[in-house]
Amino acid sequence: MKNTDYSEKKSTSNKNPSLLASGLALSFFTLCSRILGLVREMTKASFLGTTKFADAFGIAFMIPNLLRRLFAENSISVAFIPTFKHYLEDSSSREGYQSTKDFLNATLTLISFCTTIVVIIGIVVAPFLVPIFLDSKDSELLRETAFLTRIMFPYLFVISVAAFFQGILNGVKIFSPSGFTPVLFNTIVISVTYILTPILTKSITDAELRACFAARAMAVGVILGGCVQAIFQLPFVIKTGWKCHFTSLKKAFSNPGTKKVISLIVPTILGMAAYQLNDVVSTALAGKAGTGIVSSLQYSLRLQELILGIFAVSIGTVILPDLSGLAKSEQWKEFNNLLTQAIKIIALISIPVTFYSLLNGKEIISLVYKSKSFDDKSVSLTLNAFTWHIVGLFFIAMNRVVSPAFYAQGNTKSPALAGILGFVFNILFAILFVSPLKGGGIALALSLASFANSVFLFAFLRKNKSININSVIKGSILYASKIIVFSAIALIPTFFVKNLCISAFSNYNRIICYGMPLLLTFFTFASIGILLLLITKDSIVKSIVLTVKRRLSK
């Protein structure tokens, strides 16, 4: 072992980055990633619309991405980081440092070897996987989807290496580089699609064939984006002093650390497999329900995820430390109050958003996605999914807030069980509703399953006798009912304003035609809603106003 390596490690380990600064930077990059993710879907809509090749790309990307979520993300968060942190505790000595280096080398080798084998198998069996998700009568679509799958399957390898680098950085409390990589990924996919598609379709006039080559351009963008995610993090990993390299397979499989990682991964994969099975079944049902169903569901979900990413995930993340502190000190009354307040904030935001989106869904989808390739039929397909997706927004968002109440008590099994039961319901509802409602049926299934998930979460919380769950439920239902009434009242004048605006701006370009009605109706809806909250002296609004006043007075 070189002394310079050990010295480098010691010097970098003394650095203690600000967790607050890292957390704020990570939140900012997450928001940027969500926005760029929407722009990526807008790019896809512009070039592919809801053609069969949009479905082909969606399914081809889903297969390796599903394995990424099942193995890479799960392995890093559940198994690698805890094991790496254990090694870090003993890395101050030369022996401990060498053991940590050996563990990292073995892990990199193991990840590279296993994902390479899976990628090779995936490329070989792609033509046999694709018919599971698509109508087998369309041979051209099957061939193209298999081809796109083969292009994108190596993404599993590069993104797994990127996840390994992320695990090292997060283990030493460096978060920003990993938080920025999704921004890079989306930027590259968007850029490559715009640059490569015109080159590939230069002499092609057929719209469907152009969409085919555009899907190939996006697939190339996915591979390049995954490579950049790994390469970008490498200098930061080297800077930490934990440089790693390949070792022999014998050492990789016999290393005590990798054995521990494998033992931690196997049980969690079983639970995660049930979770991910939902995507597989839903996509298979959508792929056989008709052309454009898969892509329309993805367009709709991207809009919903943007909303969730802005407030639900943030609130859940913010309250977890406070809930943990209250649970540890057994301050259950304060615990109840904080949980109830968090649910009320979710209701205050998600319920009005739901009402407004139900009224203006067509205009929102048209403004974001509509183009030459994304025509009125595409808008209709996506609206069918979006209408039923948005109905479940409150329950999906609330689940993101209630789950931390379990984590705060060190209970990870209950929310996992609730999630598995919810996904079972999702599959059953999807099978039931896909035939009459097509994509809308699959979206409705997700909303109903999210409601079922909420019921299970509250039922499991009831087992803790220290938590007055009846008080939480009663307070949440009463407040949500009030917001529903206020939203319905605000929606009535907004409806008439919408009709006037659509008539006034119908002859302008897309931005003005759909943007101005959305802007004016939002102003009307929000103004009436805020007025009603102020008149009734809403407790949540009052708390927000007092908080703002205190900060401004400092």
Task: Please characterize this protein's 3D structure.
- The structure is a single chain.
- With 554 residues, this protein is mainly α.
- It has 20 helices and no strands.
Task: Give the SSE layout.
Blueprint: H1 3-13, H2 19-48, H3 52-89, H4 94-129, H5 139-152, H6 155-171, H7 176-200, H8 207-239, H9 249-254, H10 256-289, H11 293-310, H12 312-328, H13 332-369, H14 376-391, H15 393-407, H16 413-437, H17 439-461, H18 469-505, H19 510-535, H20 539-553
Helix pairs in contact: 2-7, 2-11, 3-4, 3-5, 3-6, 3-8, 3-10, 3-11, 4-5, 4-6, 5-8, 6-8, 7-8, 10-16, 11-14, 11-17, 12-13, 12-15, 13-14, 13-15, 13-18, 13-19, 14-17, 15-17, 16-17, 18-19
